[in-house]
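Attaching the record inline, Q. Sequence:
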Amino acid sequence: MTSATTIRSFARLRSRCVAALVLLSALSAFLPLASAQTYTIHGNTPGFIQKSQDLGAVDPSSVISVTAWLKLHNEGKLDKLVASQKQKGSPNYQKWITQDQFNSSFSPTAQEVKAVQNFLSAHGLTVLTVAENNFYVKVQGTAGAIEKAFNVQIDSYKLNGETYRSNKADPSVKNSSGGLIAAVTGLDDYGFQPMVAFPSGPEGTPRKPIPLSITPDGLFFESQCFRAPETQTFTGGGNTATYTGNRYGADITNTSYGHLPPCGYQPSEMQTAYDMTALYSAGWDGTGQTVVITDAFGDDTIAGDAEVFSQLYGLPDLTPSNFQVLRAPGAIHNPGKGHFGGSAGWRDEITLDVEWVHAMAPGANIVLVIGPNNGSDLDEAINYAVVHHLGNTISNSWSGVEGFGNPAQLIRDNRILESAAAQGIDVNFSSGDSGDFAASVGFKTVGFPGSSPFATSVGGTSLALNPDNTMNFQTGWGTNLTEIVDTIALGSPPLVPPANLGFQFGAGGGTSLTFAKPSFQSGLPGSMRLVPDIAMLADPYTGVEIIETFNGQLSVGVIGGTSLACPMFSAIMGIASQKAGHGLGQAAQLVYNLPAGAVTDVLAVSSPNNVSGVINGTTIETADDLAAPLDGTTSYYSAFYNSPYSTRWFVITFGTDSSLTTGPGWDNVTGVGTPDGWNFVNALAP
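Structure, as predicted:
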């Protein structure tokens, strides 16, 4: 071959190579899209949409906030560490680690956080905050931008008259950072609910507080919720009904206060009932400890209300030296919509939490951490409290329906609670106020986050006191109502037969749909986590007094719910930490198998014949006949009541909690029972 031919051949080859390189260069822009792996975040669609009406797509220009939760490192190692910290005899027993130690072994890295931030920013989302332990990146943007970033459609849904938003399917990420993301919260706004409950009057409406300005000195509420048997006869329309039985509630003779709840307990009465006074005499009142409370939205009057509460009931002053309000980072400028009563319901919750932690642990400091809304921001508030180790006990009187939640979020919340457990922080939750939830959501489930194996779930009781404020009886909280006389003043005759109004409310409990049974419940049946673990007073019909600003006026009222049980129990755990000199870790792993006397086993109160009647000559032998769904139930307490203003009368039954039952040993209404203050604290901190 001549040199010229060789040169021409080389030129043609070079030309073809250049053309190929140009083609490859042109195609290279499309190769990342063609080869990028898609990471689906499984289990990230909330269950509530299955029971809801889909109303169609949300406005893509609406602004919302979402949080990308990163995966932890060495989760198996973390599980083993926390298990060993709980195991008596282990070299690690109650040897808590610090936040820095947790971060170095288990938290996401700064580089991982940066990768997720870059991905979200590239989709036009504004970073609001990054968790100090790198657990999450919180962003804000239009719904349309968030839909594109996570490849989801976000629709509006109607459930029980309320409108919510939610993703229709699991989100996914077409970027390597998707492999770092464990969950995305905020795509839905179902949120958590405060567990407060008010007693209903005979008119069927909740009893709200009354102004202190019209309340005579000393006329708050009676501590005697049940009176001796009496007989009442009603006639009308040719009918006659006679009832004999125990009367519920105090005899309020001043009819100008006829709308007051029949009874309500003050701090001194609860301190005596739960055997706390001996602790205070010995110097164990929570001094040196901080009980942290998380709540949503905030309450501008809580500092003043709680100080008035303290003064009225002879408690130490609450001042900036022992009471702080902190705002968790997050969507402060875009708080979103609040469901379940919005911010108003949370003001009742905040008042109850602060005042009754103080009532039971009067020497403890209190830090109230406020999330900007009742969604995933509450998870972030707990994380903030843990990262800053604001206290050894965190009280959370709110809950969600586990079966309605986002499973991926549940697992992430579980890791927040496990990080708290590793650092010796006890995190407590209300078990719920809807019993087995079947009446409210259509299937049996439990309250979350209390169902987490790293949380302590606090159930509820009904409680009657003796004149000296010791316990007369207590039973599991579950209330049914039967109307026995209608409003004769409106021309209606006595009801024949009585009208059963059914289950009103009661402590949440049962079997988790998500979490396996933890080791501390090894002696209980089944393979899944059972709730609650322990209980205290929750029934609003035997509730406690609060002082709050209501409708612009300083007022006094009676309130209950497992939102009451949780702060009272958290206060006792704060006292136990004071006596121990350190945090005790998760309470749930301590309350099983305590020595005799540390907890009081709550039993069903068996007195079915304490209300009876005769209607037009037909004998009504027991309250069982007055409330047909209770047929076969022989363990409950009943009474009848009205108010001075109403001619409507009811039979109220205590201890009838949906399908849940109270009985010897652990039960799904009260857990292992209620703490006896002196014996309980000394058992946990000898």
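Residues 1-15, 17-35, 253-259 have pLDDT under 50 and may be disordered. The first strand starts at residue 39 and ends at 40.

More tomorrow.
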